[in-house]
## 1
Amino acid sequence: MSKKPSQTPYTTPRHHSDKWQQRVAQVAYRFNQQYQNQPFDLPTEVQAMPIFRDWITGTLPGRIASCFWEIAKPQKNQQCLDIGCGVSFLIYPWRDWQAFFYGQEVSIVAQETLNSRGSQLNSKLFKGVELGPAHHLNYAADQFDLAIATGFSCYFPLEYWSAVLLEVKRVLKPGGQFVFDILNPEQPLAEDWAVLETYLGAEVFLESVAEWEKIIKAAGAKVVARQSGELFNLYKVQF
């Protein structure tokens, strides 16, 4: 990018001040560092872990990424919201689906990158990325047919995700779908992943699948599809 984004990691929009602000800022800072290719100062023993070597060489992300479209392929002219989108609009084939895509992200680096490049990729389908956390979506009620949130649930406790589920329910149209992934602590990679991410700057919560499914049910959501990956389980739910 031509200019370096502000080093301020995250400021809660709409003057929200709540108990999640510090954790959201921590996650934003961790990903700002990554997106700006800034070095991470990690202990030698962490750098010696196989999972670190896979991460630093770039082979890990492709292995563990949750391909949401495998269980919820966007349809033509649908309104879709990618929450915590990172730089995903530069990676996955959203233009092929002919659906309208909006985003929301806590990393100002990712937000600025996507807003500067997304419209160049397809100005009709790309509707912009807002800066903000998952529990305060900057969008209207009943706006979306599909909401997506992959790759970041593990950085927040279940209580936070209860709030996210309610907020997603608000912005979805009746009958809309929400696709998100959770870290499965039973997977062999889970503990090493948690160690790595904690040293990269964002603590990981290892919550059981059973506890996750309890909060899904408590939010009034019904699981309509699920898919297991090497590290994450992908869920499609309806409210």
Note: The chain has one domain: 16-238.
## 2
Amino acid sequence: MAIGGTFKTVAFDDGSYAVVAVEAGDQRKLEVVATFFDEERARDYAAKESGKTSAESPVRAEAKAEPRRSSASHVEAGTSDVISELSERQAAVLKTLRSRKNENNEVEMRAASLASAAKIPLGSLHSVLQSLEKKNFIRTTRTGSAKAPAVYEVLEG
């Protein structure tokens, strides 16, 4: 389906939201255009894509007012210099996982909870986790499902 027509916001059970394009001829056909952890941002995006000009949302104004933090500010003291090469989102996820690991260096957590704790969009989490695995900071020992959260092993070094 070509992206166009009406855009709507859909809420999922895991607390995430999606913006979907609804086909004009058949209201039962939907295409997921974007996913968000924050409902306000999802609605903002849907309004923008629909071509509606609305007043700037408080979320957007807050995001513009808050200065961007470097990844170094997200990384705990005493970690290696390699971590400074991580993006802001990668560093936030790694810091969250390190702070929640058990004695076996494992973290059992649902994707929505991890994204929320790291303060990153849920839609970005998968690529961030893949990057951290590729750089040997974490290892996924069990992928998440609808019935069970994922388990991540935090690798030292």
Note: Residues 88-100 form the longest helix (13 residues).
